[in-house]
């Protein structure tokens, strides 16, 4: 089991306004620059002579007594011993000898030019976050999913009993909804593909559906889970899949009144991770029973619970972190909790485990780079870091530190470059972890056509 807790004491009195710039005092190690000379280019013997004996000798001599012949002798001696220098510290080495003769007439062909163009500049990964926002009252619970970034470039976060929206295009913050104490706290948030509608899971087993453009609640999904919290959500077009503490997974068609259309049963404990594949044909679910399930929607039926395609039991702790690979349809990455600490890769067609990497700490979340073959993981005990991995070698590219408590949630902006992380230290941080794509940065994409625009207020 991964460590996670949720109690009324976790919802504290709010002392800071949510999603405002986090004020922090710079440490003595931050933003301090000093120029260090290159020691390899320094002559310490000469330096010692110049600051000791050489100065003494020149100070004792009387310029009037020094004869021209003696001065000429000293000059020749200095040239022979390379002592006629004025600088002791060398701040850069001499440039290396050119590998080719630049005066030779080299024939430049089109193939040479093409080869030069293919060389990519080395990417610099900033080691600190670009922005920090306050996130007071975030529930410190491993099994919840409280952060999501929609296709309209708006980030949603659940803080206590309230869902806040932060518009990345202008930095504005708004409060979407605050639920009553008997219904809260918020236990999950997930944007629909259109970037306008959002699902909100509650501690009382209900799920609210909101239209953020008109600021109104469309409907409440009830009766799917046994009066227990809904900690995970995943959209598949107009289907909102919910995972509860009761171990049930339910497909809800939000367009119709009888919204429960399929039920998946396999988990014996809380479902804490849900992700649909890009094709919408396979669903991955992870639970607090240490199980990973792969479900095939083609076998779904409304008449009886759907049978899983694969039941994978290699993890030894709760499986919350799930990420489908963007460049290989049947590749899934999963991460285990504090009793497991591994990232595993699966072929979801065959159910085979392709690789397993021991990370040394609790894996809270996983994100693939949309532009490079890289995977980002967020961690808990003990370093609370982000780790960027090269796939498939799983060599560490970078470790990003800043959070002081476990990094429970991660989300990507629409272009896939900026990553937002929310941690139990009550801060929301933004990282340029994936760099800028080769194409010029585009504006946030327009919201796609609404998949259920005809839905009215249904209770």
TrEMBL record:
One Pfam family linked to the record: WD40_CDC20-Fz
Gene Ontology MF term list: anaphase-promoting complex binding; ubiquitin ligase activator activity
WD repeat boundaries on the chain: 179-220, 264-305, 312-356, 400-432
GO biological process: anaphase-promoting complex-dependent catabolic process; cell division; positive regulation of anaphase-promoting complex-dependent catabolic process; protein ubiquitination
CDC20/Fizzy WD40 domain mapped to chain residues: 133-431
GO cellular component terms, semicolon-separated: anaphase-promoting complex
UniProt similarity note: Belongs to the WD repeat CDC20/Fizzy family.
The protein's role, per its UniProt record: Component of the anaphase promoting complex/cyclosome (APC/C), a cell cycle-regulated E3 ubiquitin-protein ligase complex that controls progression through mitosis and the G1 phase of the cell cycle.
Name of the protein described by the UniProt record: Putative transcription factor WD40-like family
Gene name in the database record: 11444276
């Amino acid at each position: 089991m991964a460590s996670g807790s949720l109690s009324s004491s976790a919802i504290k009195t709010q002392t800071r306004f949510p999603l405002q710039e986090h004020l922090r005092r710079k440490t003595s190690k931050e933003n301090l620059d000093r120029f260090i000379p290159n020691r390899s280019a320094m002559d310490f013997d000469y330096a010692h002579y110049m600051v000791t004996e050489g100065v003494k000798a020149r100070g004792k001599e009387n310029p009037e007594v020094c004869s021209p012949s003696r001065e000429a002798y000293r000059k020749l001696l200095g040239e022979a011993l390379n002592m006629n220098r004025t600088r002791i510290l060398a701040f850069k080495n001499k440039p290396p000898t050119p590998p080719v003769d630049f005066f030779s007439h080299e024939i430049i062909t089109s193939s040479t030019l093409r080869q030069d163009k293919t060389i990519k500049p080395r990417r610099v990964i900033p080691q600190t976050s670009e922005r920090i926002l306050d996130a007071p009252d975030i529930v410190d619970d491993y099994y919840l999913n409280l952060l999501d970034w929609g296709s309209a470039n708006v980030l949603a976060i659940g803080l206590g009993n309230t869902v806040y929206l932060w518009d990345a295009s202008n930095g504005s913050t708004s409060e979407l909804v605050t639920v009553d104490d008997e219904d809260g706290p918020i236990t999950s948030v997930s944007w629909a593909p259109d970037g306008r509608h959002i699902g909100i899971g509650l501690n009382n087993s209900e799920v609210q559906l909101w239209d953020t453009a008109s600021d109104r609640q469309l409907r409440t999904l009830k009766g799917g889970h046994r009066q227990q919290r809904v900690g995970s959500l995943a959209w598949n077009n107009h289907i909102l899949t919910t995972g509860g503490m009761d171990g049930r997974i339910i497909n809800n068609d939000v367009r119709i009144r009888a919204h429960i259309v399929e039920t998946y049963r396999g988990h014996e404990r809380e479902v804490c991770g849900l992700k649909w594949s890009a094709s919408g044909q396979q669903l991955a679910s992870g639970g607090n029973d240490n199980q990973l399930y792969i479900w095939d929607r083609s076998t779904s039926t409304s008449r009886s619970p759907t049978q899983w395609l694969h039941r994978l039991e290699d993890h030894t702790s709760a499986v919350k972190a799930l990420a489908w690979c963007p460049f290989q349809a049947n590749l899934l990455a999963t991460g285990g909790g504090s009793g497991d600490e591994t990232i595993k890769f699966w072929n979801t067609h065959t159910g085979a485990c392709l690789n397993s990497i021991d990370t040394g700490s609790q894996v809270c979340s996983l994100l693939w780079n949309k532009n490079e073959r890289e995977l980002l993981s967020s961690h808990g005990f003990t370093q609370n870091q982000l780790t960027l991995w090269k796939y498939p070698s799983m060599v560490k590219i970078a470790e990003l530190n800043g959070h002081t408590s476990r990094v429970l949630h991660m989300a990507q902006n629409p272009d896939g470059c900026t990553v937002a992380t929310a941690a139990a230290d009550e801060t929301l941080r933004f990282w340029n972890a994936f760099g800028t794509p080769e194409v010029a940065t585009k504006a946030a994409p327009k919201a796609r056509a609404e998949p259920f625009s005809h839905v009215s207020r249904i209770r």
